[in-house]
Design brief:
- By secondary structure, the protein is of the alpha/beta class.
- It has one domain (3-189): Spore Coat Polysaccharide Biosynthesis Protein SpsA, Chain A.
- It has helices at 31-40, 55-60, 76-89, 107-120, 145-153, 159-165; strands at 3-8, 25-26, 29-30, 45-49, 63-65, 94-99, 125-129, 132-141, 169-172.
- Strands 5-4-1-6-8-7-9 form a seven-stranded mixed sheet, sandwiched between helices.
- Helix 3 (76-89) packs antiparallel against helix 5.
- The model has no long low-confidence stretch (mean pLDDT 90).
- Monomer.
- One of its GO terms (biological process) is Mo-molybdopterin cofactor biosynthetic process.
Length: 190
Amino acid sequence: MVVTGVLLAGGEARRMGGVDKGRQLWQGVPMADSIAATFRAVVPKLIISTAEPDDYYRELADCLVADAPAYRGRGPLAGLLASMRQAAAMGHDTILVCPCDTPAVSEGLLRRLLAGYARAGGVPVIADCGGRVHPLHGVYPVTLADALEDQLKAGNRRVYQFALASGAIVLDCSGYSDDFINCNRLDDLR
């Protein structure tokens, strides 16, 4: 298993007034910096999916990807698809994914997801915390890229539906509740 980390930082951030979420400070550090450092402690390579591939993100990642033109504005599944395609091109078979608006994500959570995936035998694994499923905190084989693209072509942008259709195992991550602190609004960062 060759795993690439994927930081999803390409959203429209409508609830945050359209600013780039990854650059927003959380505890004095840009959210993307915090998560990239956590990924670096767990996996050897990092892809950042961003709408604005620039020097800031280039310094944090081994590779930047943007949504394919046909899928721009279609949400996190488009970033997940571009990342799967890039990871496959790099010779990697698995991605470990996290969105940039959960800056408290820990090495422990990422390692738990990877261990769950290793036990699952190639089936996607997604996090559950206190009965709430987090399909963007998970591990996916890149072989699912075609199925994901089919779902996008059909107009379905639901991440959880993609995970379920892929046979994902929901992993109890209740011991990591602080990791799922979500910063979707500027007020969440205070």
